[in-house]
Hints:
Layout: H1 3-12, E1 16-22, E2 34-42, E3 46-55, E4 58-69, H2 88-95, E5 99-105, H3 110-113, H4 127-139, E6 147-150, H5 154-164, E7 172-175, H6 193-197, E8 199-204, H7 221-228, H8 230-238, H9 250-270, E9 275-279, H10 281-292, H11 296-300, E10 310-315, E11 318-322, H12 330-333, H13 338-353
Parallel strand pairs: 5-9, 6-8, 6-9, 7-8
Antiparallel strand pairs: 1-4, 2-3, 3-4, 5-10, 10-11
Amino acid sequence: MTTRTAAAMFLRTIGTIQLNLNSSGYERGACKKHRNYSLQLISKAFAVDVRLLAKRGCIYGQSKLHVVRALSSHSSGVYPVSSVSQNTDDYKKNTSAESALILIRHGESLWNEKNLFTGCVNVPLSKKGVEEAVEAGKRISNIPVDMIYTSLLIRAQMTAMLVMTEHRHKKVPIIQRNESDREKDYWSQVSSEETIRQSVPVITAWELNERMYGELQGLNKQETAERYGEEKVHEWRRSYDIPPPNGESLEMCSRRAVAYFREHVEPQLQSGKHVMIASHANSLRSIIMYLEKLTPQEVTALELPTATPLLYIYKGGEFIRRGRLVGSKEAGVYAYTKSLALYREKLDELFQRQPSVEF
């Protein structure tokens, strides 16, 4: 295989590439000593782990190139949130790991309070929305969170931050810089490994934004219904493929939200990381449609209350919903799996040894 051919395969392929290498001029029987060699190639977009079996001067046998797509361009690289598997067995083991996915719509915003179409307008939480987010944090305080994804909109980010103030592990959420700010990464660099371990990276992505309501944004919902008719406004709000004037349909929102989830979030779940997504009604409807294989008719009827956590367990390539969309108590939000129960037991032991820690 020529260097040019190998480079072309590297640029085109994502997954596992198997190579058969046998150096010319050496007989297999002539090489008696075995050595293992490991090669890592890391670029901006990919990480590659190559493990080779060598006998003296010859390198041959079957070798694996394990290619891992790098994290979103929205992450800054301050946190080691994505790592290269040590070997193929580790990768296979990780794909069968059990991990938690928490979906949560933001708390009430100031425009929700005023009954205005909000869409992609960047409006903060209301006082009630702040209280809702804190309450949501209490309800999921025992579920592990390794990474957080939010939209670019402040109401989703505020919700994520407030939720984490109630988490028993007391990890601090830190928003990562976007690609355009990479040159200033050193300004926000964290120098303490211990502090990094006690932090949670927060990745922001426009793909998780609420759907854009076009000419309806900022209008009162009731007044708009009186002007255009309730049936027409209901069609704009609840149909799957009919957008409001100069806005996005749910179908259009779904394409970007689900594509982002599959490319950036799902690999983290496959690796065993526990993820929370704080986002919006329509972007979360889109993701739930993908997770539960809902039809367009089913997803348009799906209601997501503000600041109500929903838990999924990812295992063996499948998503299993735990608990219900409603419920005021922890037990109503999710049912424990074995690993989550063990996680809670460890937390209980930790805080029994540290009685001064407040919840």
